[in-house]
Amino acid sequence: MTQKKEHLLILRFSSLGDVALTIPVIRCLLKTYPNLQITIVSRKAMEPLFKEFKGINFFAVDFNHRHKGLKGIYQLYNDLRKIPITRIADLHSVIRTHLLCFFFKINLFQVKKITKARFEKYLLTRKKNKKFQPLTPTIYRYADVFRRLGFPVDMQKHEFPLKKGMVPKRILKEILKNNNEKWIGIAPFAAFPGKIYPLDLMQKVISYLQKDYKLFLFGKGKKESQKFDIWQSAYPNVFSTVGLISFGDEINLISNLDLMISMDSANGHLSSNFGIPTITLWGVTHPFCGFTPFGQPIENSIFLDREKYPLIPTSIYGKKVFKGYQKALRSIDPKVIIEKAIELLSK
């Protein structure tokens, strides 16, 4: 009798950083179980993240139309039932995935979801009686879901891709002069103000580093683009990528960097997924929250002095900022960032 081929359905709709964190685990999955079929269910915008995988399927959800609301979730279930899946990994654990997984469970599919440790996160971020200890990194929580589904992986055996992405031609035209200079990516923005290093201080970092290196600015939206345009006009070795290249080309460019400087945000995960040295700046969040970029030593994380700011972290994602902590990131001297960048680039 022919054994049924395993087909794993992976649910992770957002955010970009959390979706990017699935990449190293999927690499290990495919290396350990080369015959395993995988379908990723996420938003269409996330598809370029998975281009390196030739043997997996990507299913784009449409929460604005076809998969909107309760009726839409049931439609999504019916759409996914057309795929010969055998097990479901819920790496998101939100209302949408709970409903979707309920439909699968009542039809006897094996489903496992991520353990988010919400109470432990509350203890880490509350004001009084804070329990300041590191939480299990999200990437290992993902791996645990696969273990419980019968697919254990050893993240210590993870291998970064050897092949770098093709740099977009529009970028190459701008940087062919002095092409022996090393490339630094800088992503100075984040979802919440509590995680953004003051832009006047970041400008000092940019002003110094651009003297000897080529700097690429990563971000999105009109407001960020306008700031980048100012820096690009002021400094000869600074280039904005906003509106110039697609997200897929942006990933390719990041794979060719020598260093990334990022807030606690998605760009730090995008660069670390290629094994690129990544400096992360932490405001009201902290590496103990479990979102340190994969494979990066703690020395590459620059965070606030907890003797000055003992209530750090104030939240997991940076949305909540306690009184008196609004300007806490100003306590990080630009020299600290510059010196760390030069140190990593000299290795």
Structure notes:
The chain has 347 residues and is α/β, with parallel strands linked by helices. Helices cover 33% and strands 14% of the residues. It has two domains: 7-151, Glycogen Phosphorylase B (Rossmann fold), CATH 3.40.50; 170-345, Rossmann fold, CATH 3.40.50.2000. It contains twelve helices and eleven strands. The strands form two sheets. It has a six-stranded parallel beta sheet with strand order 8-7-6-9-10-11, sandwiched between helices. Strands 3-2-1-4-5 form a five-stranded parallel beta sheet, with helices on both faces. The chain starts with 6 loop residues before the first strand and ends with a helix.
Q: Beta-strand level of the residues, as a percent range?
A: 5-15%
What is the rounded Rg? 21 Å
- Provide the helix percentage: 25-40%
Total individual domains: 2
> What is the C-level CATH assignment of the largest domain?
Alpha Beta
- Give the assembly state of these chains: single chain
Shape: globular
Class computed from helices, strands and strand pairing: alpha/beta
Largest sheet at a glance? 6 strands, parallel
Short description:
This protein is 33% helix and 14% strand.
